[in-house]
Specification:
CATH class of the largest domain: Alpha Beta
Strand content: 15-25%
Helix content: 25-40%
Number of helices: 5
CATH architecture of the largest domain: 3-Layer(aba) Sandwich
Oligomer: single chain
Distance between the termini: 119 Å
CATH topology of the largest domain: Rossmann fold
């Protein structure tokens, strides 16, 4: 049976078709059918247009022009800016999907030396990370692990590497997992020695010898101790090294823990 057929009632009148179109007049019935079809067609076209618009907007927002390129890092003086970028993991992502709060939390967890950090997005594809570092002065190394330390020996926290800090090596692993403060280390003397002899690349530390540096191509160890005058130690060191090099001496160590009695040991 056709969808638009009619039924005759007991009184002989035509009823409304199942499609909702009054079938009493063919002209009126087909006009309403035409209107019904037009409405359905317009609705279908509207849905198609909506889908195409959403696809177009999605292509724009998630296309290459909205993919993050270079991430700008501001305020990284001790930290490595590239390490910050790698930890943030933003390059190549759509800027629409980046949640600044999540990135900031991740950076704080990985870099405990960060005092504050903010992540800012700028359309179409620019991201800026602004951070403020805690005032670290030293990197304490023990067992290939690093802790960032303030000028006075206060521990900031463990870090993946030394960054741009001056490294003090815990040779005997006396403090292999420092938490709040590293006692016994002559931090003041270390700072003064760096001022007097800035070519020092790093310090070793043991409780007995105190600070240790290495000089000449033969890497003679020099025991600086844990107290004393850095300028006097530096002057003595230069004089001794010059004398021993001229004499082509084989040296086991130089001991400057007591500036009034500098010692050195020759190797036979």
């Amino acid at each position: 049976m056709s969808r638009f057929t009619t039924r005759t009632t007991a009184k002989g009148h035509r009823s409304v078709t199942r499609s909702g179109v009054d079938g009493r007049s063919p002209a009126v019935g087909w006009a309403r059918v035409r209107d019904w079809l037009a409405a359905r067609l317009a609705a279908g076209i509207g849905i198609v247009i909506l889908v195409l618009c959403l696809a177009f907007v999605g292509t724009l927002l998630f296309g290459s022009q909205f993919r993050v390129g270079e991430v700008q890092v501001l305020g990284a003086n001790l930290l490595d800016a590239q390490a910050i970028r790698q930890a943030a993991d933003l390059a190549g992502r759509s800027i629409i999907t980046i949640l600044p709060g999540q990135v900031e939390t991740r950076l704080r967890k990985q870099f405990i030396c960060i005092a504050s950090v903010s992540v800012q997005r700028q359309l179409p594809n620019q991201v800026t990370i602004r951070l403020e570092e805690q005032p670290a002065r030293w990197a304490w190394e023990s067992g290939d692990r690093f802790w960032w330390v303030k000028e006075d020996g206060t521990v900031i926290g463990e870090m993946p590497d030394a960054g741009r800090l001056f490294v003090v090596h815990d040779v005997n692993r006396v403090f292999s997992a420092p938490e709040q403060y590293i006692p016994g280390v002559p931090w003041r003397l270390a700072a003064e020695m760096l001022q007097a002899l800035p070519v020092i690349p790093a310090f070793d530390y043991t409780p007995g010898e105190g600070l240790i540096v290495y000089v000449t191509d033969q890497q003679w160890p020099v025991y600086l101790g844990s107290n004393g005058d850095a300028r006097i130690k530096t002057a003595l060191l230069r004089a001794l090294v010059e004398k021993l090099v001229q004499n082509k001496a084989a040296v086991g160590y130089i001991d400057l823990r007591n500036e009034s009695r500098p010692l050195y040991k020759k190797l036979t």
